[in-house]
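Internal QA ticket QA-208
Title: Verify multi-chain structure generation after dependency bump
Assignee: T.L.

Test input:
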Amino acid sequence: MPPSSDDDVAERVVVLPKPLHARPAGQLAQLAGRHKETTVQLVAGEKKANARSVLAVMAMGAVTGTEVTVTATGPNAEAIADEAAGILTAAEAADG
Amino acid sequence: MTEGIGLVGIVLISHSEALAEGAAELVRQIAGGATVVPAGGTEDGSLGTSTDKIEAAIEDADAGSGVVLIPDLGSAVLSARSVLADLAGETTARLVDAPFVEGAVAAAVAAGTGADLDAVIAAAEEARDAAKF
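Actual output:
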C-alpha cells in the first residue's frame, strides 16, 4: 500500500442495487465524519452531496440503478472510497 | 474529538410521548451508536411537556461531553429553558433551534462520530437550511 498524503484522491463509480435510504446515508455520513481531514463527495447526475451531511445525502434521492461517483480527497482516500462504495452497494441498503 | 469521555447526547423534547419516542427510534436507526433520549409528553402521558422528564432525559443522555436539547414546538422551548435555568452551572446541556426530525438526525450522526458539543450543535442548526429533496 503506498503511503498516504494529503493529496490522495480516489474515485469509485457504483450503480446502486437499492435506493439510497436513510440508514446507508447515515453510515456514509458517519464514515465521512470519522475522517475529518478527508472530503468525501458524492455525485449522481446533477445531484451532489458532501457525504458528511446525512441530510444532503438523503436529499439526493438516488434510486435503484443510479450511478454514483464517490470521490475521496485526503488521507486514506483509497480505503475511505472503498468503504463508501461498500456502503452504497451493500444489500442491507434495502432496509433503510 | 471526545474519545474516552463519551459521546455528546441528544434529548428530543416533544409535546407527544409517541412523537419523541418514534423520532428517537428513527434517529438511532440512522445514526448508529449515538445516544438519543426521548422526553415527550407529560408525567401522565398526555400531550404537553414535563420539566421532570426533560431533566431526567438530560441525566440519561449525559456521558460527560455535553447534551443537545432539540424541542419540537413552542412551549417545549419554554420547558427546556426552565430546566436549564434550574440546572444553571450544573449542566453542559444546550438548547438548539433546529427542525425536530432533520436536526435530530444531523446532530445524532455527528455525535455518533465523536464530534464535540459545538460541532453537534452546528450540525443540528445546519439542518434548517437543508432541502428535503
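Spot checks passed. The longest strand of chain B covers residues 9-14.
Status: verified.
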